[in-house]
Amino acid sequence: MSSLHTVQILLGSRCYYVPREPLVAQSGFFQALFRSGMKESSGEVVTLHGLSPEGFEAVLQHITGGPIQESSTAHAAQYVIRTITSQDFLDTESCPLEESLDYGFQDMSQGPLQALVEAASYLQVQGLLSLLQSSLSPDTCLDLLEASQLHGQWDLVHAALNYMATHYHLMLRRTDFQESPETLKDSVLQERFQGSPALLVLSQQSDDCWVLLQHQDGSGGWHCLPGDVPQSMLRVHGYGAATLNNYLFVAGGCRENGQEISAVHSYNPRTGCWSQESSMNQKRYNFRLLAVCEALYAVGGQSLRNMECYLPAQDTWTPVSPLPETLVEFSACESHGKIYVVGGYTPKGRNMSVLRYCPLADEWSVFDICPLHVRKQQMVSLEETLFLVGGCVRNEQSRQSEDFLSVRSYNTITRSWSCLKENTSKSGLSVSCALHNDGIYILSRDMNYSTVGRHRVFLKYCVFTDVCEYVRGAPSEGSNMQLCSMYLPHTI
């Protein structure tokens, strides 16, 4: 029978004697029971149904922080539960507080986790449910998601989805996640893109300092994001950069001493951390890194034809069909799952072809012919339209190259070209651009004689209104800049 200080609980063939005070303090179920005036609250035995002993005992350990001690009787197995006191920790030097309260959530299989969530939900132990949220790991998140959905713990459901979205590429490499329903994987990927769209720039501030800056729309300033850029990325130019699944990938490049590199790093905006990924098979610089259909493609490079593909789920690079010819000073972008390459030079001369690569067929083809020769331009795409920004365009009448800033478009369906904007006072070389929200943001430089090459300008070309406007707050310092657009969590 229960007493003033102890509650007797029956569960199946087991009988538990539990300290009343922590039970009432942490369990909404027992709070309501002992304040309801029901017979159990006046000293009678409390009988529970439908819970597994494993789940119930794990909940009791959380509530009391104490061990379960068995003492058998003729009628049932009896379990005495006592609350850990400060003296217990003084008497147990080899077992500090953090270890004493670790109940092994990380090591639980699906069955015990289901039982634990079931018991915590039934007994309304919010402290334990909150602890489960903070104890998520790659090994437990899927099981906890299933258990929390079954028992209607929607905060825990969202926490599990958020955890998998935060560590999306890590989850992609797990067999249990790969075997999950497509609807779940789609939900996790959608969760990864929740947040605020942000325009970022990766900038080398000095030889030993790279930063990732976020543009502040209201003030026009730049905010430095958390995360130390890896030392192996320092003093590198000619690198490739692309965003895939809301990760920023930076690959390859060339050091000051002329050494080409194959290293690859990624930035996760949901954790604010850089990670080293598998290196490319080929050292390369002055190449194009593109995200296409859940994969990255490293296209060409200085004196290179070859191309390779990176799959995050496998964390490996695989050679694919090379470019038809070696290209330099070209540009490329993705549109509707295919890669388009424009401009540059082949060993035979100017490249006037629009090349297209189809990943499904692993084939290159000549898609069209350019009316003008362009080199060193940047490219972005919106649906079926390719936008060529900047570069050096050859004027066939004067047979001279013009390097002022221009925006040209190419429609891959109608195969038609348009010159959208030209600005002869802005340089088309050393341009960085990114598609963000409703426009193409462009970093360029003035070509005025008094400030040539020194004054950086920040522009936005609105793709729907065909208007080019100045944007406040161009980065005043830095080099090797790369603009990109990502989704940042609302807490940043």
From TrEMBL:
The UniProt entry, under InterPro entries, shows: BTB/POZ_dom, Kelch-BTB_domain-containing, Kelch-typ_b-propeller, Kelch_1, SKP1/BTB/POZ_sf
Q: Which UniProt keywords apply?
A: Kelch repeat, Repeat
Looking at the record, the residues that make up the BTB domain are 5-72
Q: Does the keyword Repeat apply?
A: yes
A Pfam entry, by short name: BTB
Entry superkingdom: Eukaryota
Record's protein name: Kelch like family member 42
Which organism is this protein's natural source? Answer: Leptobrachium leishanense
